[in-house]
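Q: My labmate handed me this sequence with no annotations at all. I'd like to see what the chain might look like in three dimensions before we decide whether it's worth expressing. Could you predict it?
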Amino acid sequence: MDLTRPIPPDPYSLLPPVPSFTLTSLDVASDTQMASAFALAGDNFSPQLAWRGFPAQTKSFLVNCFDPDAPTPAGFWHWSLVNLPASITELAQNAGAPDAAFPDPVFQLRNDGGGVGYMGAAPPKGDRPHRYHFAVHALDVETLPIGPAASATVAAFNALFHTLARAVIAPTYQTR
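A: Here is what I predict for the chain of 176 residues:
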């Protein structure tokens, strides 16, 4: 099957602009191929992430990973971690494991593959490199008005109205 199609824009460029802050990782970098440890066919680990410089009025974070290059009309959500307290500014490698324990009111949503937690990179074989936007959204509320059964899209929609700032790292992955 020929998967030739237009390259979608950066998904966050389509939203109202907000300030940025610093997001770093020991595991991934923007515009660089991720190791197979972060792919579904590899170890399926979420990468280590750390952030700083977010607004002082931040009350919580939404952390997510989105692939705008998936061959669907709506991209593909790989991870959503909701209601992370503002006191937590780092996630260890594999924090997105399905059985990861977080204090209330933190929870992980189902990814678009149907499982809870992080689903590693899994572009179709032969497709171009996909971009994986790991984003940390600084929010002005302690909890979003959603529950664990919400979709990642519903979480992103609700976060839009509470986002003070956003930081993104966008590594790539291609199945060879």
